[in-house]
Amino acid sequence: MRQFFSMLIITLISTLLMAAASKAESLQMGISVDQVPVSSSFNGAEIVIFGSIETTEQAALFRGEYDVVIRVEGAPEDVVIRKKDRIGGIWINNESEKYEAVPSFYSILSARPLNLISNSIELAPNGLGLNNLGKNVPVEGEKTLIMNPGEFSDALLRLRIEQDLFSEIPGTLQQLSPSLFRAKLSLPANVPIGEHKVTAYLFRNGEMLNTNESSFVIEKVGFERWIYNLAHEHSLIYGIMAVLMAIFTGWAANAMFRKS
């Protein structure tokens, strides 16, 4: 009986130690703004993501064994990529491929290139990096982006990069101290409206240990917000107003030319 209780105590202590070890590293994260207002004069913005690494392994922290990678994603959307072919001397849309759950905005912030932080076994399941986008582990009941190698996937990435909507630039995250970090996120003028999810990943010697999530919102303000809400929530009224405005503009232009 005494031996049984001794084994039980040892097992409980081992379990507690393993649980404590699994929580030895964690991330704290904050964002400089909760909302980014977009008006007619909006030409982009810069926000700051900051945080700290919390660990009991202080020696490893000062040796620089930890890395933080931040992923920023806009709301997912469906995208169709079309390929134009010349048929009978005319360029027309021929083949096409549809992609589901494409991030409307995607940015990776890190201090070092991702291939120096970890390998594809750790990065790909979390969709970290442009090369690993579309390789996420599917979530049951949710749409998941799947990008198979090929010209359509290459075209999707190329177009989003050219539009400044996809980016992966090492050096955008700075280690202010062994535990404190700060990252600057540049938002282009065409940044999509809506909620953007921010996820920070903590790595040590290539192994992903912990994550932390937050978010911010891109939102139109003033007259632009009224027009945006009208177009999305009352599309029929917006369509009628657009037609009436076009008719009035045409009539006014015709009247002016007739007078001249």
Helix content: 25-40%
* Order of strands in the sheet with most strands: 2-12-11-4-7-8
Distance between the termini: 110 Å
Tally the helices: 7
CATH class: Mainly Beta
Largest sheet: 6 strands, mixed
Task: Offer a few descriptive terms.
260 residues; alpha+beta; six-stranded mixed sheet; 12 strands; globular
Q: Can you give a write-up of this model?
A:
- With 260 residues, the protein is α+β, with helices and mostly antiparallel strands.
- The strands form three sheets. It has a six-stranded mixed beta sheet with strand order 2-12-11-4-7-8. A four-stranded antiparallel beta sheet has the order 1-3-10-9, with no helix packed on it. Strands 5-6 form a two-stranded antiparallel ribbon.
- Helix 6 crosses helix 7.
- The radius of gyration is 25 Å and the shape is globular.
- About 7% of the residues have low confidence.
